[in-house]
Design a protein that fits this description.
There is one protein chain. The protein folds into eight domains: about 50 residues, Wheat Germ Agglutinin (Isolectin 2), domain 1 (2-Layer Sandwich); about 50 residues, 2-Layer Sandwich (Wheat Germ Agglutinin (Isolectin 2), domain 1), CATH 3.30.60; about 60 residues, no CATH class; about 50 residues, Wheat Germ Agglutinin (Isolectin 2), domain 1 (2-Layer Sandwich); about 60 residues; about 45 residues, Wheat Germ Agglutinin (Isolectin 2), domain 1 (2-Layer Sandwich), CATH 3.30.60; about 50 residues, no CATH class; about 70 residues, no CATH class. The longest helix has about 55 residues. By secondary structure, the chain is α+β, with helices and mostly antiparallel strands. It is about 20% helix and about 25% strand. The strands form eleven sheets. The protein has a four-stranded antiparallel sheet with strand order 1-2-3-4. Strands 5-6-9-10 form a four-stranded antiparallel sheet. The termini are far apart.
Length: about 550
């Protein structure tokens, strides 16, 4: 006969009498008499030990069902905070990692006749008694961690356990939920847990949880301060003060124009905060921290454990650094990140990876066959070099952030070779500049323009060109047509797959282009040096003529 029991994950076979010497996993005595066992795992337990404990119970101190378990490690009871030294204990059936003594789990809820002076509450093992007004000066509330004397509700009734120094407002006890469903921070149900064996970091504010109480989702390993979980949300129409993980202090709604000071900027969108847009600011002394209410809604509700394809090795967190003059750099667009604004940063202390909030929303979407990652189209970047042509990229660069590879959109093998555009009557052909003087020009003052936007362009980038009209346009001015026509180039794919092109070979192409550029620059330098010698000869001749003319003037011009 076999039974399925919560105490073990395999079926247990009934054993009338076992011949070999084995210990019971429940009482640790020699196995004798009727028992159950799993031969595969070597797990055996007396039938009497199994029958002595209920398989599943419901405790006053925890909202989830609890199942019986045998001790395999040293554990703490989450109710009385003492070591569990008995062989049996109860553990949460779900994913809360909540464990407790058998006697603590079975402790009944006590309803006291003098409810005005003694209350049993699920947050604490012992009864909570009404605190005398003379003792309130030494009371620290266990939830808000503030002294009773400075609390706004110091006049409210306070209950506590003087032995454990555990105190609660009566109003808190009445409204304190065992679990939070559909919470703004996390989609799973958050369970209240009292615990003792380790401190967690709050996944909302990032600070350590030291109060022995938290709201937790065991399945997602998410933990929140009680005060962070219960703090008023921005969704409330009457919320004048809120808490957000992006800042260690509470944020207060700006009530009058004078609080804005001299055109402060929102730490999320970097736009100027105006009186017409509801804004929260640091309630203490952080003068630079302003956050639009609309930006608050758009931000995530927790600060850590963000995964992003730009940085697959580590997790990212949203950070708000103290004000200083240090400018960080975004690893996607290479633009600076002002330290007063929010940004995504790598959680690893030795890793300096950072992202703008808006760059975090960029998504990789363009395939470069032979490369393991998708490429992201960035509109503008500081000067980076194309790995295919060796020319600087400024506008519309395809970038692989993890591998630090940059490619002009027009250098992509699948970029269309011929397009039609409303700006010109004839078809336009993708080509390098047809004018030798453009390609050979290294003078900074030389300027070359796009015929569509009439702005300066880089003369060494590929262009779309009409030979009949000598019409030139940059790729950025015909971007929609180019993107709509980018498709797979089968011949290029076969070549890439055949040759197994890798990141190193892409860099090889880059080296080859740089070598060609070096040769051209060397030739240009030789030309300039030759011109300098020629000009120096002319300069010497002119200098001699000046001296001769000066001497003649001295001879024929009377002195005085």
């Amino acid at each position: 006969m076999e039974i399925q029991h919560v105490i073990h994950h395999h079926p247990l076979s009934f054993i009338e009498e076992r011949s070999t010497i084995t210990d019971c996993q429940g009482c640790w005595r020699n196995l004798s008499g009727p028992a159950y066992g799993c031969e595969r795992c070597g797990y055996f337990i007396h039938k009497s030990c199994l029958d002595e404990h209920k398989a599943e119970v419901q405790s006053f101190f925890h909202p989830c069902p609890l199942t019986i378990s045998t001790a395999d490690t040293c554990a703490h009871c989450f109710v009385c905070f003492k070591y569990i030294i008995s062989n049996f204990f109860y553990r949460c059936k779900l994913s809360c990692r909540f464990e407790m003594h058998v006697e603590c789990a079975l402790k009944p809820m006590v309803e006291y006749s003098d409810e005005e002076s003694t209350i049993q509450h699920f947050t604490h093992l012992h009864p909570l008694k009404l605190v005398d007004s003379n003792q309130k000066d030494e009371v620290i509330f266990s939830i808000c961690e503030e002294p009773c004397s400075s609390s706004s509700s110091s006049s409210s009734s306070t209950y506590g356990c003087m032995e454990c120094k555990f105190f609660l407002h009566k109003s808190c006890m009445k409204s304190f939920p065992r679990q939070l469903i559909n919470h703004r921070i996390h989609p799973c149900t958050l369970i209240f847990i009292s615990y003792t064996y380790r401190e967690n970091a709050c996944d909302c504010c990032g600070e350590r949880i030291v109060s022995r109480m938290k709201y937790s989702c065991g399945a997602c390993d998410l933990n929140l301060h009680v005060k962070c979980a219960l703090f008023p949300t921005i969704d409330s129409e009457v919320a004048k003060e809120i808490q957000h993980f992006s800042h260690p202090h509470t944020l207060a709604l700006v009530q009058n124009d004078e609080e804005y000071g001299s055109e402060p900027r929102c730490v999320a969108c970097a736009q100027i905060c105006l009186a017409s847009a509801p804004t929260f600011r640091c309630s203490r002394s952080c003068d630079h921290f302003f956050l639009h209410k609309s930006c608050y809604v758009k931000l995530p509700y927790n600060s850590v454990n963000f995964k992003h394809p730009f940085h697959p090795k580590h997790l990212l967190t949203i950070t708000s650094l103290p004000y200083n003059d240090h400018i960080r750099t975004c690893d996607a667009c290479f633009r600076g990140i002002d330290s007063t604004f929010l940004a995504y940063s790598c959680r690893e202390s030795e890793c300096k990876f950072n992202l703008h909030l808006d760059c975090y929303n960029q998504r990789s979407s363009i395939t470069f066959r032979g490369h393991q990652h998708l490429l992201t189209l960035l509109e503008k970047t500081p000067v980076v070099t194309c790995h295919l042509c060796g020319v600087n990229c400024r506008n519309f660069v395809l970038r692989c952030v993890p591998c630090d590879i940059n490619i002009h959109l027009q250098c992509l093998p699948s970029a269309p070779k011929i397009i039609k555009h409303k700006s010109h009557l004839h078809p336009l052909i993708l080509t390098k500049s047809p004018f030798e003087y453009e390609l050979n020009s290294y003078e900074e003052e030389d300027e070359f323009y796009c015929d569509v936007c009439e702005q300066k362009r880089n003369q060494r980038e590929l262009i779309y060109y009409c030979a009949e009209c000598k019409f030139i346009t940059e790729v950025k001015c015909v971007l929609a047509e180019v993107l709509s026509l980018i498709s797979k180039d089968e011949s290029f794919e076969r070549e890439i797959l055949k040759d197994n092109i890798t990141k190193m070979e892409i860099r090889k192409w880059h080296v080859e282009n740089l070598q060609q550029k070096y040769i051209k620059l060397h030739e240009r330098r030789e030309e300039l040096e030759a011109k300098m010698k020629e000009l120096k000869g002319e300069l010497d001749d002119v200098t001699k003529e000046i001296e001769t003319t000066k001497d003649l003037l001295g001879i024929i011009t009377p002195s005085g």
